[in-house]
Amino acid sequence: MKKVVKARAVKPARSLSSRPKAKAPSAAFEIAKLAVTALEAKQGLNPVITDVRDFSTVTDYFVVVSGFNIPHLRALFDEVQMTLKKKGLQCYRKAEDPESGWLVLDYVDVVIHVLLDERRKYYAIEDLWAEHRRTR
Under a CB-based contact definition with an 8 Å cutoff, are residues 52 and 59 in contact? Predict the structure, then answer.
């Protein structure tokens, strides 16, 4: 007699398309501008917003900023989180290893990269999207 085994339902992994998106692109851009304002308040170097809505399924905007040193990176990182949290926005994911010289905050529609200046030049994130619209 053969034993019958029932198949278990497996939950699919969370796909990019299931990530909650902003109701309107302008809402995402407002988040990016708010992040830049917070970064400028802490003397972030050369903050840039890049519009990747038509070219990326991951996010709508990238914000890239440089800091002077590791404590400055941490201050920029914390300031953005506090500012956006006051507006009711929670960070979806974050990578926060200051010793690496690159911190990332993912707000789904806006991904914020906080880098040491030499890391920013080395990885050249902005150059990867150079053909796309830079909004700031």
Answer: yes
Report how many domains make up the chain: 1
> Residue for token digits 């150059």?
127
Mean pLDDT across 2-12: 44
Alpha helices in the chain (DSSP H): 25-41, 70-86, 117-123, 125-128
Question: Stretch 123-128: mean pLDDT, rounded?
Answer: 84
Residue of 91, 127, 97 whose CA lies nearest to 112:
91
> Which domain CATH number covers 104?
3.30.460.10
Give yes or no for a contact between 100 and 87, defined as CB atoms under 8 angstroms apart.
Answer: no
pTM listed for this prediction: 0.77
Does a structural domain hold residue 18?
no
Domain that holds residue 66: 23-128
Q: Is the pLDDT of residue 75 over 70?
A: yes
- Measured CA to CA, the distance from residue 14 to residue 19 in angstroms comes to 8
